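Appendix B, example 12.
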Amino acid sequence: MKRTLTSLEGQPLEGQRAVVRVDFNVPLKNGAVADATRIEATLPTLRWLRSRGTRIILLSHLGRPTAARDAKYSLRPVVKELEHLLGAPVAFMEDPTTEAAARQSRQFKRGEVCLAENTRFFPGEEKNDPELAKAFARLGDFYVNDAFGAAHRAHASTEAIAHLLKPAVAGFLMAKELEYLGALMANPQRPFVAVLGGAKISGKIDVIENLLPRVDEILIGGAMACTFFAAMGLEVGKSLVEADRVALARQLLDRGGQKIVLPLGAVVAGEAEPGVETRSVGRDAIPADLAVFDIDRSTQEEFGARIKQARTIVWNGPMGVAEVPPFDAGTLAIAHAMADATARGATTVIGGGDSAAAVTAAGLQDKMTHVSTGGGASLEFLEGKTLPGVAALDDA
């Protein structure tokens, strides 16, 4: 268990400077925030701190800039969106690593919020450089990590700083992520069903390995199912198959037995493009000249029935090429099945990434128990790995 923001309740926080690591790695379009979900998720932490008179300095990365100060990766456009959502002015700090920035942080008014420039603009961030962490630490009196989406990376603003700036606690979003994902792994209500999709089995091997002894069933869709089909000796046509993982898939099938549930059939086509001719076929009737791009209706119904009977469901990865209709049908069907399961009292957790995007696009995010803000972080959590940004926080 990690210490959380609520552990600071009752302490003299007024006038203290809180360095808050957030995940404002949001999509930008025409100089504005295109999806504010991650910003909205941090508001409870920011409002709690503001109500107690703290001065707030926000650190975040944005994208993967290859050159220092690449303007298209500047966090400046996020200021306006944050001001709108928070209902308060937000300052912007061009260079949080200078002595001048540290002095500026002491001059902020109580409750004032300042967003610093992209942490990845500064050499050493991704190398977890202790000197850069010291510069970040000079901005505050205590540290709050509310960036679950970056918690799987040992960077200067997520890991090294937590050893320098104390107390170092989890914000409300981080605590919520750890609560729901932790409960999945420690004490799930049964039946416990995992739904895994995506393109490659190699990206989900550790998840499957870690979940197999814990779950009652793993429903597998997406192109990764084709590698399992190949392991069964089935024709897969021109589908994406990881030839070097077929033997592993065969081993997983042998070990998993009836726990591993594969699609009954597939939607096939010549290419994954809008308007192409599609066909639904059984998994033992995939044409040699076509490729699998989605699960078929019979699989949607089969997976839906298994989800309906579950008490705990975690989902990570699309069932097909969800960004190209009509190959989004299987993914949408799973999203609706998850929403129905939630309404019946099941605990439903969406493991971030493409699954979270699909749920949001369908307008079903509020119909789930929890939608994770961190695709990579939630995946590594489900793999049983230690997240550096979490491990560095104070123990409760």
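Residues 69 and 362 are 36 Å apart (CA to CA). The mean pLDDT is 94.
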